[in-house]
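Quick illustration, no need to memorize.
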Amino acid sequence: MTELDAFRAEKDDFFGSHPQSPLTREQKKDFQGLQYFAENDSLRLEVTVDEFPNKEKFEMQTSTGDAQAYEKFGKFNFVVEGNEVELTIYQRGHGFFLPFVDALAGKETYTAGRYLEPEPLAGGHFIVDFNVAYNPYCAYNEIWSCPITPAENRLKVAIRAGEKLFLA
């Protein structure tokens, strides 16, 4: 079992049995595990982030009509399926946040997008591993409030890694 397989099994166990799972009691009854893309080494990236000189404050709208405060930290480029694309990383406190929507949204991935927490390294580098991209809790149950992916992070290419669309 790979490290990713173990992580996914642990997550499935949490979703199926933990009291803080985003699933309702009814959803847990038939829960057989989340659906994932196969591990894709080409989408585990070490990227150089071009940090914005002035950290622009940014209010990210949520699925319940609220807003959450972030700073636009920086952007990075990478190539997927032969296309160069760009994403913006946001910062809140000491944590980094990368919401994105891909071309599979609404078909194979959650319509409103998936999330990542990029791992900072030295010298402006980050690990961005799309294999651990996950759906926000509002994908499972609409009582949750989730940040809505900003337009600048809506890609026209498919990211075939991470969690797939949840089918209750």
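Residues 39-153 form one domain.
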